[in-house]
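FAQ: What does a ligand-bound record look like?

Like this one, built around phosphoric acid mono(formamide)ester:
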Amino acid sequence: MIQKGAHEQPVSAGGGTELFHVIGPRVCERRLLDELCDLTTRVRTVAKSRAGARFLQDLLPDRRAMFYFTQPSTRTFLSFNNACHILGIRTSEIRDPSTSSEVKGEGFEDSIRTFSSYVDVIIMRTREPGRAAQAAWLMDTIARPVPVINAGSGSDQHPTQALLDIYTLDRSFSQRGGIDGKVIGMMGDLKRGRTVRSLCYLMKNYFDVRLVFIAPEQFAMQNDVKSHLEEHGIPFTETEQLGKVLPELDALYVTRMQLEWDKADESRAVDFSRFSVGAKELGMLKPEGIIMHPLPRGPELDPAVDTDPRAMYWRQERNGMWMRAAVLLKIFRLESRIQSLDLEAFAAQDGDIPLVS
Ligand code: CP
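The answer part, i.e. the structure of the complex:
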């Protein structure tokens, strides 16, 4: 039986660290997160050399991925697309449903089943929440199921963004004990921001983390997330005053106002300028603190911040490509091919290739 509209499913269907569908972050465990972060670093490192890039390209040339993106995307689409290219996976896409047989009345489930006839993984973004979960449940009922990856489901969840955010936090704090013990601020439209919602659900995996939500009252973090944090003993506070909490933060995760979800121009009533970062706020951030943003940015993130070494968002978006390659390797169970590699040997083999990471 297909459970329609099920918004929350485990990122891992198997209870261990194996991956099949990637739908939601709730059941994701530390062991899987640590393994994905390590795998991401390994893929990045291997890809630096020509020999490594060739090795990666030969891993999955027999696999095909389908992109079903009916909601706009730049980063998630391009990073997944390029992650596929890095691993030799061939890709096809529908980004505009008006070009598919949906305009002839074909239903969602028939469309998904049709995609699965041709490819080995479906990566999908939709405006409606729950569609990726619905597709995954459908797959679990058919003879040739293919994994479904949620690349953003309405204002609800964005699990692979949360994974790349974890990787970015983990790397940024690698010399300071990792994510454990850190104070992480999340600012902006927390009510409708799927990236911060998904990231919150992963925080139960880290010790002594404290969250600070900085948002206008109308766009405060929703109760489902707060209940989850309470259930797992993760302390959080809420404020509308960035200046009061900024000096204590190890990371500030800035998000934009999600105007696309307005029903009656409700965002216009809010003075959002109080929830922005510029030179003044940088002056209040710890010297070793970091600024993250899922991008695209709005007026909440002054471009002047870009040149500050604590601005992590451009690395964060590039990390998305490597993390998504790691996710695909896990889904196709090829992680051991990377884990067993002698990374130094690859580096030594092709010293002529520029080290772009
Ligand atoms: N961060 C993110 O999801 O960006 P896109 O909407 O451009 O994919």
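Follow-up question: can I read anything off the structure? Yes, for example: Residues 73-76, 152, 161, 294-296 surround phosphoric acid mono(formamide)ester (CB under 6 Å).
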